[in-house]
Structure formats: C-alpha cells, structure tokens
Write a structure and sequence with these properties.
single chain, alpha+beta, Cytochrome p450, three-stranded antiparallel beta sheet, 21 helices, 11 strands, about 10% strand, globular, binds protoporphyrin IX containing FE
C-alpha cells in the first residue's frame, strides 16, 4: 500500500493512481467533517445566533465542561451570557436563554412543549420527567396527579409525622453519644423512606440505619453519569446488559440503587401477578394509582412501571433533602436567624413535643426561611430543555421550530436585580408581600419547582416535608456546626441536581435538646 505522499507523487507524474480503501475512507471522512463544519457554522438554522464558534461546531465543547471538568457547563454558560447576551447557542442544536422575566412565559405560557434529551440521561426513558412528547407526558401525569394533591398528601401525613419523629429520636441518640450527626446523609434517608412509603407502601428503614445508608451516593453518581449518557446514549443499555455484580465492583456507590432497582423490579412483578405488597397503613399508594388508572396497556408494562418508580422516587429524595440541608446550614450558621425562628416556634408550640402542620404554615418568618432555602437549593441545576413545533419569538429573535431551547433555574435564583446579594441567605427578603422593582410579586421568581405543565409534581409533598422536619428540629433542638462551612452547601458541580464540592464530608452538627 502506497503512503498518501506517494499517491500524490504518482498523480503529479501522470502514473496511474490506485487509492487504498483507508485513504479513500480518510478522504471521505475529512470531507464530511469539513462539510459539517461549514454547515453548522454558516448554513445551520441556528448559525445567526451568538455564542462561541466551538460550541456551534461540536458537542465536544459541552462534553469537555461536563465530563472532563465534572458538571461545569452551566457555570460556563453563565460566563458566555455575560459576553454574548441573553440568548446564545450552546451546542450545535441548542439555544440557551438567560432572562428571568422570560422563564414563566417560556415554560408556562407555551403549551405542548416537548422535552428532548432527558430521556437519555437516567436510564429510565419512560418515566414521567424524562418523557419526550407532550401528549404522552400529559396522560402519564394525569394518572398520578391526584396522588400529589394537598388532600392526598394530608391523607398520608400520619406516616410523614412518624418518620419525622424517628429523625427526632435519632437526634437524641446522637446527643446522648455526643457525636456529630451528618445532616447531608440523614435527610436523603428521611425523604427516601417517605417516598418509598408513598410510592410502594413500605420503606427500607434508611432513617434507622446507623449511618443513614440511603440512595444518596447512587443518585449523585447517576447524575454525573447523565453527562456521559448525553454524549453516548448507549451507555445505559450497555450498563443494563452487564451483570450487577460487575457494575457494583466498578462503582460500589451504585450498590443501593441497583439493589433498589432489583427489588422494585421483583415487587412490580409480584404486584402484576395480583399480590398486595403494601405493608404500611397508607390509604393508597402511587403504584396502585397507576395500576388502576385509565393509562393504556403500553404505559403499564413492567419496564414502564419500573422507569416511573425510579424517577418518582429519584425526584422525591435529593431535591427536598438538599433544600433541608441548605435551610439547616444557614439557620444554624446565623444565630440571629435561629433565635428569631426558635422564638416563633416556642410561641406556637409551648409544649416542645407538639407539631402541627397548619400552625407551622401560619408562621411568616418560618415560611420565609423555607422559601429562601428553596431558592438557594434550585431543585435542579441542569439546563431544562424544551422544543416547540412552531417558531418561537424571543425579543428580536425568531427561534426555528423544533430547536432545543433551555433555561436554567440557578440563573433566576441569582438574578441580582431580583434577589440582591443573591448568594446570601436572607429570609427577610420574603416578608411583607415583597415586589420586584417593576411591581411583580417576588414569589413569581421562586422557580425552583419549575413552571408550567411539567413543573414539580411533588411540590405539595415537598412543602409538608420541609415544614414538619424543620419545625421539629428548630423547636426541639439547638445545633452547633462541626467542621462545616458554606462550601458544604454551595453548589460546585451540576450533576443534574446541584452538588457541593466533591470532597465535602457533609453538614455535620452537634445536637442539644432545648429546655424551653
Ligand atoms: C424542594 C423540593 C423539590 C424541588 C425544588 C423540586 C424541583 C423540581 C423541578 C425543578 C422539576 C422539573 C420541572 C421541569 O422539568 O420543568 C421537578 C419535577 C418533578 N418532581 Fe420535584 N422537586 C422537589 C421535590 C419533589 C418531591 C418530594 C417529589 C415527590 C415525588 C418530586 C417529584 C417530581 C416529579 C415526579 C417530577 C416530574 C414532573 C413531570 O415531569 O411532570 N419532587 N421537580
């Protein structure tokens, strides 16, 4: 086989030219890449949008920030907005908008938006949050919507109270042993037990586990894997084809989640055969609700139900746990806030053993403390993509149909025009019905639960968990931080969910019972 230079020489000297298959393949690949580059940079429908050329050229730009630098593209995108303006092209096929006032209009006012991309991220493409088509999503959501009404949550509240009391008992145990309690581990165990009880009708007793073993690590790892899966969508099918013991050997943190997947697969199988797996005294479970719903048979297959279980349980664990951790860190770290809150709680509950949701909800300062924690916990740190089958107007820009357009919750939470000193925890900003400079209610910009038809389904459950857990904690106990600082709650990585620095040991606290 002649080297390329010899082919050239042969061609120039008029000798008959025989190209090897490898040379031809290289030439074709090179021409294709060149043509693709020209198309993406100059002819693509998004070519006129601002942004770095490299991002327009290739998804490897995104991959570098997400995979190599571990969840840093969202942060980079914020820098790019500073440079290029409110709308930018962040991958060859995706635009990103930073404009808090457009958030509601985009997600809530446009009906029938599809959501491209999340179906590849978690390995559960048929779960609600990952469903691509607006129509499929609508019927799947309608099937479980009633279970997430305030009324339904209240019919389950006795189980939430029980778990909150278990957490209180664990606090006393740590107090007696004079050992620090790791809130970053305790909260996912709490929220995990609650959502398991609600979805399946039993829990794994994670809150009673000595070290609060939970799905926490596994969800973190899944979040990080999501960045790889976005670039290489076959990763989850490949992982699913590998025996679990090998995956556990490669990634020990995945063990509880694989266990959960195996268990729920078996449980769903038993239920489909007519067995009742519920062991708690919940009136009804989400799982029963799906099975009894009018969903078509293809939405009640074993695999679809397994996907739904994973995303609903997943949605219910880390988000609320992180909001609880944020609230606790800041309240404990600011004695002034703790004292004011504790005083309100003592006035509302003279008997420290009492706890009542409605009374807790009537305390304005307490509500403000929770709102501020929700603002700073974001729910999701990921870009939240949508596509629309018609052109979309944004300012002077006409966005072509079916373009992936995303916005990001943390950018609204840190809009300094709306939330001055936005990285600081200031509950007072929520008091006395506050408005923005242009007269809109501040609450309008609390977007951590998302907006529109795909906004958080678990919002009512989340609020109840936040009120009862924090009410119990700050009425009954006083805390002292142990080797924890703001970097243990400040987001350092976007793994779909917000994640603090990777070497954080969590927010650890010493606990003392209050005497008043
Ligand atoms: C502070 C707590 C929570 C926050 C901040 C939060 C935030 C969010 C956000 C931002 C979304 C995505 C919205 C979108 O795509 O536009 C979402 C979706 C979802 N969340 Fe939550 N969440 C919380 C707690 C919960 C809880 C306790 C559950 C209970 C199961 C839950 C279940 C879900 C589900 C099922 C979805 C998908 C909804 C859909 O696609 O229709 N979340 N959540």
């Amino acid at each position: 086989m002649l080297p390329v230079s010899d082919h050239l020489t042969a061609a120039l000297s008029g000798l008959p030219l025989t190209l090897s298959p490898v040379t031809v393949a290289c030439a074709v690949a090179l021409s294709y890449l060149l043509a693709l580059a020209v198309y993406r940079l100059y002819l693509h429908p998004l070519a006129k949008f601002p942004g770095p050329k490299l991002a327009a050229l290739t998804s490897w730009y995104e991959a570098y920030y997400e995979i190599v630098l571990k969840g840093q593209y969202s942060r980079k995108i914020t820098d790019l907005h500073d440079k290029y303006g409110p709308i930018i092209r962040v991958t060859p096929h995706e635009l990103h908008i930073r404009d808090s006032r457009f958030f509601d209009q985009f997600y809530a006012k446009n009906q029938r938006l599809d959501k491209e991309g999340w179906d590849k991220r978690f390995g559960s493409p048929h779960g609600l949050i990952a469903t691509v088509k607006a129509d499929h999503h609508k019927r799947r959501r309608a099937a479980i919507n009633p279970m997430f009404s305030r009324r339904s949550i209240l019919s389950f509240i006795h189980i939430i109270y029980r778990h909150v009391e278990t957490l209180s008992a664990r606090m006393q145990e740590f107090e007696a042993r004079k050992e620090p309690l790791n809130l970053s581990l305790a909260f996912p165990a709490l929220t995990g037990d609650i959502i398991m009880d609600y979805f399946f009708g039993f829990n794994y007793g994670q809150l009673e586990h000595p070290e609060f073993a939970s799905f926490h690590d596994a969800f973190m790892k899944i979040g990080a894997t999501g960045h790889i899966a976005t670039q290489f969508p076959s990763i989850f099918p490949i992982m699913n084809s590998i025996p679990d013991f090998i995956t556990e050997w490669i990634q020990p943190a995945a063990k509880p989640l694989l266990q959960f997947k195996r268990d729920q697969w078996a449980l769903i199988g038993r239920t489909l055969k007519g067995e009742d797996i519920k062991t708690n005294d919940a009136q009804r479970t989400i799982f029963q609700e799906i099975l009894d719903s009018k969903l078509p048979p293809e939405d009640k297959t074993h695999q679809r139900l397994a996907d739904e279980a994973q995303v609903v349980v997943g949605g219910g664990v880390e988000t609320t746990a992180f909001a609880l951790t944020i609230a606790c860190f800041h309240i404990i770290n600011n004695p002034r806030i703790y004292e004011r809150l504790h005083k309100d709680l003592v006035a509302a509950f003279p008997n420290r053993a009492d706890l009542d949701l409605v009374k807790l909800e009537s305390l304005p300062y307490f509500k403000a403390c929770i709102q501020e924690a929700v603002r700073l916990s974001y729910g999701l740190s990921a870009r939240n993509p949508r596509t629309y089958d018609k052109p979309l107007q944004y300012k002077q820009w006409v966005i072509p149909p079916k373009t992936i357009v995303a916005m990001t919750i943390p950018e609204v939470s840190h809009d300094e025009d709306i939330f001055p000193d936005s990285y600081s925890y200031i509950p007072e900003r929520w008091l006395n019905d506050p408005k923005t400079s242009d007269g809109l209610p501040l609450e309008h910009f609390l977007v951590s639960f998302g907006k529109g038809s795909r906004s958080c389904l678990g919002i009512n459950l989340a609020w109840v968990e936040l009120y009862l857990t924090l009410g119990m904690m700050f009425r009954r106990y006083k805390f002292e931080l142990f080797e924890a600082d703001e970097s243990d709650v400040r987001v350092a990585h976007d793994f779909f969910i917000p994640v603090p620095r990777l070497d954080s040991k969590g927010v650890r606290v010493f606990v003392t019972s209050t005497r008043d």
